[in-house]
Amino acid sequence: MATDTSRTARQRDIEHWDPEDVEAWESGGRQIAKRNLIWSVVAEHVGFSVWSIWSVMVLFMPQNVYGIDAAGKFYLVAMPTLIGAFMRIPYTIAPARFGGRNWTIVSALLLLIPTLLALYFMKNPASYTTYMVIAAFAGLGGGNFASSMTNINAFYPQRLKGWALGLNAGGGNIGVPVIQLIGLLVIATLGNTRPEIVCAVYLVAISVAALGAAMNMDNLRNQKSNLGALVEALRFKHSWVMSFLYIGTFGSFIGFSFAFGQVLQINYLASGDNAAQASLHAAQIAFLGPLLGSIARPFGGKLADRIGGGRITLYTFVAMMFAAGILVAAGTLDDAQQGAPSGGQMVGYVAGFMLLFVLSGIGNGSTYKMIPSIFEAKAQGRDDLDREGKAAWSRAMSGALIGFAGAVGALGGVFINIVLRASYVSDAKSATTAFWVFLVFYVVCAVVTWFVFLRLREQRAHSGEHVGRASTPVPAG
Prior knowledge:
Layout: E1 13-14, H1 22-51, H2 53-57, H3 63-66, H4 70-98, H5 100-110, H6 112-123, H7 128-137, H8 140-155, H9 161-173, H10 175-190, H11 196-216, E2 219-220, H12 227-233, H13 237-270, H14 275-286, H15 288-307, H16 309-335, H17 343-379, H18 387-425, H19 432-463
Parallel strand pairs: 1-2
Helix pairs in contact: 1-5, 1-8, 1-9, 1-10, 1-11, 4-5, 4-7, 4-8, 4-13, 4-18, 5-8, 5-11, 6-7, 6-11, 8-9, 8-18, 9-15, 9-17, 10-14, 12-18, 13-14, 13-17, 13-18, 13-19, 15-16, 15-17, 16-17, 16-19, 17-18, 18-19
């Protein structure tokens, strides 16, 4: 393993990297990994902000100026989520193919495209189709997560992956509330007519992220993550199960992050606010949810390191069922009366969403701890590989699945926005039906987690069965 002392200003490649080598890790590897983690977080943070830029831009788009109603805005914020989900597949492969440092620079600079497009067309209103196309380019920011997580997964040893991946993802996720907070500051000081200021801030942030990656990150040249690794990873049942569960955790986080401001704005408009007031009131609250979810994510990983990813994930889904139940109760009471929601019902809406944000953050951390644990356990059954070969196989499988699960999970964000839109345009014209759908889905996720990762483990523990090569361990995380 290379150390800082062996690295010159012109040398950015590390030919051999083994984070499981404790001596090398303590003698310099830890510092290298930490430096790469810091700038990976910065770049991913900016990527998440640009990915969610349209959750902010819609607050600057009164219907009488842009001609887009609330239902159309749900599609507009869903488009980046959809494109970002598909971008995560090639972005997963990119760090090993081009180098983590090199790809971080390129992926950061690509964010200039959606940011410049948003800046121009927010000042020059165009057709709804044009905005849908522009929003699709923001999906480039969604791909950054997959490449960043795959890269950092390779830098850290198994015993520290939960915390490192949780910190990396949480620092990236926090880009969502940060851009919403910047939007709030602009709306609060200048009104909802100056969206170009938000875009200008991110042109600077993108430049800082690209420059920081160029100066401080490294390429690991002994990593293998390609389509072959992804195909091999998807042969395992647990890969598909983890991808499904990630819909419930990350899909909830990103979907609610994009939709929460819209839900609040609709309720404030119903209460009699004009467009500017509704935008301000929604922005004052909307950023808090993604902020809490982002902060919670590293702690989800840390809890998974200590207790087990399977258990923490199960507890999280059970708690999400109750949080969704709060939304169902608030929505049912709201539907039963005429007019705008009462103060108590608004408190119920906000409390339910805030709990879902925190819990989805915890679940994000725990599920991503489970992925490397699963393949670490499976690697022990590979008698055809030596210790280093098992570690390399485990990292390749984990890295491939992290990107794929991230892509599938992001589709959950599309699902949330489409379900909310369908609920609002239905005869009831409220979100209550959508809340019921979310509740049922969390029940399914809890049952799947228990059945696949905890039930079989408990049965084997009770029977005293020895799990060897013929029966791959079922890790709890």
